[in-house]
Amino acid sequence: MTTIQDLAADRGIPDPPLLRGSNQSGMRAYNERLVLSLVRRDGALSKSDIARMTGLSAQTVSVIMRSLEADGLLARGEPVRGKIGQPSVPMSLAADGAYFFGLKIGRRSVDLVLIDLLGEPVALRRQTYRYPSPDAVVEFVSKNLPALTETLSAEQRQRIGGLGVAMPFQLWSWAQHIDSPPGALDLWQDFDIATELSALCEMPVYVQNDATAACGAELVFGTGDRPQDFLYFYIGFFIGGGLVLNGKLFPGRTGNAAAVGPLPVPGPDGRMRRLMTIASLSTLADGLQEAGVNPDQLWEMPGPWTIPAYVLDRWIAGAAEGLASATLSAATLIEIDTVMIDGWMPSDIRDRLVEATNAAFLGLDLAGVTLPVIRAGTVGPRARELGGAAIPLSQRFLVD
Description:
The chain is α/β, with parallel strands linked by helices. It contains 13 helices and 14 strands.
């Protein structure tokens, strides 16, 4: 039986710089990835659509799409008949063409999701904890990854293409903010999560910063308009970010680009402080504790939350001011056309935060600044684990 590894083995060559096809036989691997990328981005496409969009010959496109259909990666739609000529047959991604795991290691929880080729969750598991430890994460994966795998048929299991891990980098450096036992997070310094999980699950494992992965999920699975350049904020226990330039995720030299948490912004009292201290869910949790409300609800499923109005209003106002200031700094440095805000929160609270951020931004001195559009992300609370799953999907089947 053909496995997903067999199908992808000849598709791992580096992508050329332009999103154009090549009619040379040596570029077939790239051309296949290009076709899959276009179908993912635009939905069902016919051979003539692909040929027009890529500059490939009709014969080359026909060969590629027949191959991808035979591999189970493309599915044939109903013919569309025009006034003249042969009917056009749209081809779309086959949901069961491949499967991927995404693991999110957070400061208060760990999540494992199994998605299909369309990016739709097939099954998921979640566990909360006081703080993350390597042993707890490995035990969680060893227990739940086989359980999620069992939800697939024997044939579908052969099409699992890898595991992507989304986690904060340098977890040990956040010990003072997580309320963990002394030295407990130091274990992460010498722990190779990719090696440990590869041995455990016997599949390719990729690791990426959690907020960068969430941004990647917006890039790969997001709906609506897809801006070519955008700054992305994801609000979890701490706020993090990601950056997309020219339609490509920009991870930076160490994979930690657009790590907006440490960005200095004015606080409510005018003093400069880190964005993470005013625009993170940990700050909202502190406000709940001060009000005598248990904040554990924040780490369970995101909503509906039972939060005193004055606590939520105060947090939204402070977070919006910080996000507006961070947006202004980014807009003056890079001409981004869009800023997206998402996070582990109910959609109505996120939308209120976006509205408040827009208002706060327009209240700043914007002379000489090209104003970006500030709007909500489209993936939602599970962007981090979905972004993790998007890593092996992208590595195997998509161009940048």
